[in-house]
Every structure is written in C-alpha cells, then in structure tokens.
Amino acid sequence: MTNAETDVAVLKAKRQELIKRLKDIEADYKRGLSADSEEQATELENAEVLDAIARSVSAMLEEIDKRIAEIDE
User: Fold this and answer.
1) How many CA atoms within 13 Å lie on the side-chain side of 31?
2) pTM of the predicted model, to two decimals?
3) CA distance to 39, 44, 53, 68, per residue, from 24 (Å)
4) Which of 1, 20, 42, 61 stands 20 to 30 A from 36 (CA)?
5) C-alpha span between 43 and 64 (Å, rounded)
6) Residue 7 domain boundaries
C-alpha cells in the first residue's frame, strides 16, 4: 500500500467515525425532551452543545472529503 493509499484509508476511517457521531447526535435529538421541566432545561443546554459539535463534525467531514479528493487526483 502506498503512502497515498494509507492516507486515504486513514481519512476514510476517520470519516466513518464522524458520520457515526452525527448519527448519534441525530438520534439524541429524535428522543425529544423529558416531561420534567428541570430535565428539559438541562436537555436544552445539551442541545446547544450538540448543535455546536454537529457543526464542527460537518466541517471536519467537508475537510476530509476535500483531502481525499486532492489525494485521488
């Protein structure tokens, strides 16, 4: 395996990890909010954090896709 092939394999593995993380975040959102108002407050705070993480992961996925495309050229 060449260095380029190794790099692409590593990037693709990282990409899969990030996709799983996004799916986990989506699943958390789909669960909805608790009936308990105090718990809802915590869940809403957590939702803000999850949203920031999701944006970061999406940006990382774009960068990985760009790097893979550059290597494949």
Assistant:
1) 12
2) 0.83
3) 20, 17, 11, 24
4) 20
5) 30
6) 3-72
What is the token pair recorded at 31? 């669960």
CA quadruple 27, 48, 43, 18: dihedral sign: positive
Total domains, the chain: 1
Contact 8, 72 (CB under 8 A): yes
Interacting residues of 8 by C-beta distance below 8 A, sequence separation 6+: 68, 71, 72
Q: In whole angstroms, what is the distance from residue 36 CA to residue 2 CA?
A: 56
33/43 Cα distance (integer angstroms): 7
CA distances from 13 to 6, 57, 65 (A): 11, 14, 12
Q: What is the amino acid identity at position 69? A: A
Q: Given this model, what pLDDT does residue 69 score?
A: 95
Report the chain (73 residues): mean pLDDT per 10 consecutive residues: 91 97 93 88 91 96 96 87
